[in-house]
Write a structure and sequence with these properties.
- The complex is a heterodimer.
- By secondary structure, chain A is of the alpha+beta class.
- Chain A is built from 5 helices and 6 strands, in the order H-H-H-E-H-E-E-H-E-E-E.
- Chain A folds into 2 domains: 39 residues; 86 residues, Alpha-Beta Plaits, CATH 3.30.70.920.
- In chain A, the strands form 2 sheets. Chain A has a 4-stranded antiparallel beta sheet with strand order 2-3-1-4.
- A 7-stranded mixed beta sheet of chain B has the order 2-8-7-6-5-3-4, sandwiched between helices.
- Chain B is globular, with a radius of gyration of 21 Å.
- In chain B, helix 5 runs parallel beside helix 11 and helix 6 runs parallel beside helix 7.
- Helices cover 42% and strands 13% of the residues of chain B.
- Chain B has 2 domains: 139 residues, Aspartate Aminotransferase, domain 1, CATH 3.90.1150; 239 residues, 3-Layer(aba) Sandwich (Aspartate Aminotransferase, domain 2), CATH 3.40.640.
- Chain B is built from 14 helices and 12 strands.
- Chain B is an alpha/beta fold.
- The chains are: A alpha+beta, B alpha/beta.
- At the A-B interface, helix 2 of A face helix 3 and helix 12 of B.
Chain lengths: 160, 391
């Protein structure tokens, strides 16, 4: 049941326990209990909104940064990853297989801000061998949502 | 100078009752801002991988006629699908026919099997095309009443009571439009027994087979000894959200498929190739899309049924398709009055139950293949409406 509840919330965080109760046939207080527990044990991390900032002309610069690092004895990549993800500028940090090790999504107000972060904070960290910065030019789809030109289904109003 | 109308349309066409809800449709067409629970198709667009496959095929020049039976690859995939899902063996070269939706399959079946005056037994209420398809083929539709008390299931005994020496076939469609009813294997087996006892064909319209919630679908042809006497009609419209592609199929014994193909090749030639290409892709990798859609429909189903009951429109719990069929007998209106007033006063479209047969009177069909937000809004409006019109 918890999976079903999480799926509903992941799709729309504003769905109320009462609505979830009806959708799943689970008593409302049971739903509330499961959600509370999931929040407590950090299964649910946060409730967020997907926003198209272009609509309000908010300038924002994002970059994906490939980071090649030297793994350390005992802790592997984790220690360096932590040094990086503790910076609030790093929005997402992933360990990847392939030609580089960490992928860091960085956002800032200007290109300068992002560049400064990479050259002054990220690159000098001990164990970081090199970085490749890709500035993001356009966002087409965010977390499963198409930003512009989402298709509308046009149906006849009545079909028998 | 114009001819008199009675000379223009044939006796055969004239015998078909004009749709009683034509006026309702005209009204609907002139209105804006309505929330429609009156549709009969998914609100999802066809999954992208299916559309993409069709687009690619167009780029490659797949724009021609296909074999009358349908593309060999599609029939092979379909044969595999029926084997995997129901453990049924249908020879792709002689026992499967690709049709233009189940609608064509139904028409072909009736024209292929009926002689003038032959009777076909079907449940009331049922899908709107059943009755006219039989009548247009020269047959006589025999409607057997079903009721909410019996979960809108067709009782074997009621069928048997209607069998005469003119009876040729039984036509059923479960999961059902408009009720959402699903019949268990045991109860279908009883119908199969009646069919065997009186040597009747069974036409089983299983277009909603994949939209089923918490119970198992029984393919009629899997019942003991029924494969030979069943004409299984299915399609891609509902499960894969492919209504506009118009692809369905018929699976039956060689003799029946040959007879249907004879008509099909002279009247339709073949189903559109782009739809067939899309259907191949659907069969090859559409399973996960179905699972996702069914999950979403189920949430909507539980929501709409609970809300209708709360409002005071008692609603039979549908187990398949995407329709709720609440009773409106607690109001002072007929189904048509209810639908028309609801449309005018609250701008919500539902389909009056009598469109599906006399036994549908006192009910309306609400399709829940629409977003939860819209369902919630529609139900709030219906609540206000019912409060005003309670008996």
């Amino acid at each position: 049941m918890i999976k079903e509840i999480l799926k509903i919330l992941e799709n729309d965080a504003r769905t109320t326990p009462k609505q979830i109760s009806v959708m799943t046939g689970t008593p409302s207080n049971e739903v509330t209990k499961i959600i509370k527990q999931a929040e407590k044990d950090r299964t649910i991390l946060k409730y967020k909104t997907i926003i198209n900032w272009d609509k309000v002309r908010e300038e924002q610069v994002s970059a994906l940064i490939e980071v090649k690092v030297t793994p350390q004895r005992d802790v592997g990549f984790d220690a360096i990853a932590e040094r990086i993800y503790r910076f609030p500028q790093a929005r997402s940090v992933y360990l990847l297989s392939g030609t580089y090790d960490l992928l860091v999504l960085v956002t800032g107000k200007t290109m300068h801000e992002v560049a400064d972060f990479v050259s002054q904070k990220l690159a000098p960290i001990e164990g970081v061998q090199g970085t490749v910065t890709h500035f993001m030019l356009k966002r087409y789809k965010e977390d499963g949502e198409i930003l512009e030109g989402k298709e509308e289904v046009k149906r006849q109003p009545v079909i028998l | 100078m114009s001819m008199k109308l009675r000379h223009v349309s044939s006796e055969r066409t004239n015998q078909i009752a004009p749709s009683g809800i034509r006026r309702f449709f005209d009204l609907l067409a002139s209105m804006e801002g309505i929330i429609s629970l009156g549709v009969g198709e998914p609100d999802f667009a066809t999954p992208w991988h299916i559309r993409e496959a069709a687009i690619y095929s167009l780029e490659k020049g797949y724009t021609m006629y296909t074999s009358n039976l349908g593309m060999p690859e599609l029939r092979q995939e379909l044969s595999r699908y029926l084997k995997n899902n129901y453990n049924l063996d249908y020879d792709p070269d002689s026992e499967l026919l690709i049709t233009v939706g189940v609608s064509e399959g139904l028409d072909l079946t009736m024209r292929a099997i009926l002689d003038p005056g032959d009777e076909v037994i079907m449940p009331d209420p049922c899908f709107v095309s059943y009755n006219p398809c039989v009548a247009l083929a020269g047959g006589t539709p025999i409607m057997v009443p079903t009721s909410e008390e019996n979960n809108f299931e067709l009782a074997a005994a009621d069928i048997e009571a209607q069998v005469t020496d003119k009876t040729k076939a039984i036509l059923i469609g479960y999961p059902a439009n408009p009720t959402g009813a699903v019949m268990t294997r045991e109860k279908l087996a009883k119908i199969a027994k009646v069919a065997q006892r009186h040597q009747l064909l069974v036409i089983s319209d299983e277009i909603y087979a994949r939209l089923i919630y918490g119970v198992e679908h029984t393919c009629f042809a899997t019942l003991p000894e029924m494969r030979e006497n069943t004409i299984l009609l299915g399609g891609f419209s509902k499960a894969y959200a492919m209504t506009g592609w118009r692809i369905g199929y018929a699976a039956a014994n060689k003799e029946i498929i040959a007879a249907m193909t004879k008509i099909h090749q002279y009247t339709i030639m073949c189903a559109p190739i782009m739809g067939q290409v899309a259907a191949i892709e659907a069969l090859k990798s559409g399973e996960s899309s179905i699972a996702e859609m069914v999950e979403e429909y189920n949430r909507r189903r539980l929501t709409i049924v609970k809300r209708l009951n709360d409002i005071g429109l008692p609603c039979f719990k549908p187990k398949g398709a995407f329709y709720a069929f609440p009773s409106i007998k607690g109001t002072d209106m007929t189904s048509e009055e209810f639908a028309e007033k609801l449309l005018i006063e609250e701008k919500v479209a539902v389909v009056p139950g009598n469109a599906f047969g006399q036994c549908g009177e006192g009910y309306v069909r609400c399709c829940y293949a629409t977003s939860l937000t819209e369902i919630e809004e529609a139900l709030s409006r219906i609540k206000r409406f019912v409060k005003k019109h309670r008996k």
